[in-house]
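Entry, Tuesday afternoon. Goal for today is a structural model of the target with 2-acetamido-2-deoxy-beta-D-glucopyranose bound, before we commit to ordering more compound. Inputs were pasted exactly as handed over by J.K., no edits. I checked the ligand SMILES twice against the vendor sheet because last time a stereocentre got dropped in transcription.
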Amino acid sequence: MARIRRWGVIVAALVGGIAAMQPHAQMPAPAPMRDLTWGKLNFLQTTDTHGWLGGHLTEPSYSADWGDYVSLAHHMRKQADERGVDLLLVDAGDRIEGNGLYDGSNPKGLYLYDIYRQQDIDIICTGNHELYKSWAIQDEHRYTVPNYQNNYIASNLDYINITTGKQEPMAPRYRKFKTKNQGLEILAFGFLFNFSENNKTLSVVQRVEETVKEPWFQDAIREDPDVFVVNGHVGVEMSEFNNTIYKAIRDVNPTTPIVFLGGHVHLRNATMYDERAIAVASGRYFETIGWVSLDGPLKKDEVPSPQPRDAGKITFSRRYIDTNLLGFYHHTGLNGEAFETERGRNTSNMIAHARNNMRLEELYGCAPQSYWMTRFPYGHKNNLYTLLANKILPYVAYDEQRVDIPRLVLINTGAMRFDIFKGRFTRDSMFNVSPFPNKFRYIPNMPYKTAKFIFDVLLSWESYFTDQRPYLMMLGIPTCELNIRRETFIAPKDVLKLASRSVGQARLSGYGEPEIVEGHTTVDGLGNDGDDTLHWSYDYHTQPAVVKTEMGVTEGEEPETIDFVFIDFMKGPLSQVFKRLNTTYTEADMLPYGTELLDVMVHKWVKENWSQEC
Ligand SMILES: *[C@@H]1O[C@H](CO)[C@@H](O)[C@H](O)[C@H]1NC(C)=O
Ligand SMILES: *[C@@H]1O[C@H](CO)[C@@H](O)[C@H](O)[C@H]1NC(C)=O
Ligand SMILES: *[C@@H]1O[C@H](CO)[C@@H](O)[C@H](O)[C@H]1NC(C)=O
Ligand SMILES: *[C@@H]1O[C@H](CO)[C@@H](O)[C@H](O)[C@H]1NC(C)=O
Ligand SMILES: *[C@@H]1O[C@H](CO)[C@@H](O)[C@H](O)[C@H]1NC(C)=O
Ligand SMILES: *[C@@H]1O[C@H](CO)[C@@H](O)[C@H](O)[C@H]1NC(C)=O
Ligand SMILES: *[C@@H]1O[C@H](CO)[C@@H](O)[C@H](O)[C@H]1NC(C)=O
Ligand SMILES: *[C@@H]1O[C@H](CO)[C@@H](O)[C@H](O)[C@H]1NC(C)=O
Ligand SMILES: [Zn+2]
């Protein structure tokens, strides 16, 4: 790619050549690093990548792409061979939905499956996102399952062929194999949490507590492998893992090491269920590649049996690797051209080609500054929802037939999914910020007082309804997105200082003192030294569930009635609220407002208001 090369030239003076990444991606940020601890058995883990295989083009700490990961894995496998140890790659699902690389084509995912398969993955399973839409389930069955053949594992998931009506396992229930270098016997499962909103015409998810009773499972856990690996689209703090599966295996295997590799909750977290069972989850959106290692006597015959407690101590280690190309260089000891493999480069090219075909780089405008979802309080000029309510909504919630009628416009904060970064705002950014196809609706001539009251109720529904209403919780930023922020803002700055002193910071060679930049500062169940990169923590502020703007309403002169405007997504929650408040409004009163989709209107707004160069 000519463009990639050009970046290479620009930074040649700095690092001796940065290759790969996507054209337009931000230069990676150097940072103080913690090294990886190798053991006899090592894992690289991805989960909840949600289409972000092009990397985070606007975030220097996470701007490596899937091709760079292909190169990284290649070198790590080679290192494993040289050390005489083993390395396994795992992926825990939710590979689709949430980024233009998947959502931007018609049909969706036209390019994603081929790009994904460029990475050899040893143990791969399904997330809930693969199972909502009929086409997504069929694509998963048609592409990902055969792409990964025996490595795809579906311990509690069946596929239903709609033509023949036949129900069969999505893929094998488990996999038993020997590792390449030490011949360790691994028995691997691939689970999905107790998910029930799947399309039941095409898939069946068995509840985990049922699966562990199945004869095949009971037989499998008696096969006496050296190590159990439970790959799962399950949070490490969820009882499917920590209770049901863990107990089932442990009951029969009192000392066998168990590695749980989880996901779903979109955060970096790790814990030990006992001193021979670790559980690790590695975040979301291809910001993080997890590293887990086990050392000690792993082979059954290395341990004099039966000596449960002193059977030989196993040590575990975990790291969360930022998807930062300079970090990859650090962990492999390789640079630029030496780091980039042909297959990695080809993969980066495939991504660039797909992004190009989908016009993801199409420039809509240039954001004059960054706007954050949670790093600033609502009302602050750097807050995304302040921008939305004060500047964008008045212009995008617009109906030509009713421009002269005062309106109150509501939008739920969950409708926005990602920060806006200073600089290029592209078709890609639009997918990241708001991936949902929403139109506006309205209730005409609602008494102004009622409209204001409804807004108040949505803002603080907990004080109106004592029961926790899931349909109202849906309005705010999804808890899984809040979790990641919680995980990242916990670490106080003194912890960071302490950590940086105690690890004896390795420096990326060729740099002066790297500056510490904002990013993940994880405190997980095992401590605060998990991140491979030292960062300052982000600030975090809770956001309201909804924000509003009022047009044509002047202070002191309240109108009698108003157009009550909101997005499609809020139809359900609002009708529930109307019912609870005993108002007469129903879904039948919610009429289309304007003709365009929200994202089409935002596109127009960006074009007209952010037209400066960048
Ligand atoms: C589930 O898939 C079937 C078969 O494609 C489709 O007809 C149906 O509409 C889907 N149901 C839902 C709820 O998406
Ligand atoms: C259903 O099964 C038939 C016969 O094996 C096969 O040809 C077809 O591709 C399958 N359809 C789907 C959607 O999996
Ligand atoms: C991380 O996992 C531990 C152990 O299961 C749990 O107690 C903790 O709540 C989790 N952290 C977050 C932020 O969810
Ligand atoms: C296991 O999960 C349950 C429910 O999610 C939680 O209450 C409990 O604290 C967890 N236990 C551990 C050891 O993480
Ligand atoms: C799975 O879901 C069922 C309800 O469908 C619940 O009763 C059960 O406790 C769940 N199991 C786990 C392991 O969370
Ligand atoms: C990379 O792409 C080139 C050109 O399409 C092809 O000839 C080559 O075989 C590919 N190499 C790998 C390792 O995939
Ligand atoms: C709505 O009506 C029900 C039944 O008449 C009553 O119990 C409830 O208190 C009313 N709710 C409100 C908010 O007025
Ligand atoms: C954005 O552009 C529109 C159309 O040109 C204009 O009416 C509006 O005032 C602009 N908004 C801002 C906040 O500049
Ligand atoms: Zn996910």
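Confidence is low (pLDDT under 50) at residues 1-16, 483-511.
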